[in-house]
Design goal:
The radius of gyration is 19 Å and the shape is rod-shaped. Helix 1 packs antiparallel against helix 3 and helix 1 packs parallel to helix 4. It has one domain. It contains four helices and no strands. The protein has about 120 residues and is mainly α.
């Protein structure tokens, strides 16, 4: 069971590294005066990197999910602890990893909007 949870966490954390870089779509027909989109995007992406990493949140989600899976197993009479813990860990890691990606994207969008860009997505 522990090997399965550890392997799942490693796979999920490595898949976070392969996540394509978020590039918001902006309306470039209305350009803020004196602004350069490439420079602003680069700076805003640097700000978003200050958020807890995808791997960090995925690991926390895996632990919380495993605990939830064990509690659910106990409520169902027990017997399948490993399976319930592993399923909970995978679900928790995926959920928290996706939340971290969403946080980073939201920060990038808000940063660009604060600099006068009209972000469409």
């Amino acid at each position: 069971m522990n090997k399965l949870i550890l392997a799942s966490c490693i796979i999920l954390s490595l898949s976070g590294c392969a996540t394509p870089q978020y590039r918001p779509i902006v309306d470039t027909s209305i350009m803020p005066a004196g602004r350069n989109y490439a420079d602003d995007l680069s700076e805003c992406m640097q700000y978003s990197m200050q958020v807890a990493g995808i791997a960090d949140k995925a690991a926390f989600g895996a632990i919380a999910g495993a605990i939830g899976g064990l509690l659910l197993n106990a409520a169902n009479g027990g017997g399948n602890r490993g399976r319930f813990a592993a399923i909970g860990a995978l679900g928790g890691a995926a959920e928290q990893g996706n939340a971290a990606i969403g946080d980073k994207q939201a920060i990038t969008r808000r940063c660009l909007q604060g600099r006068g860009w009209i972000v469409l997505n």
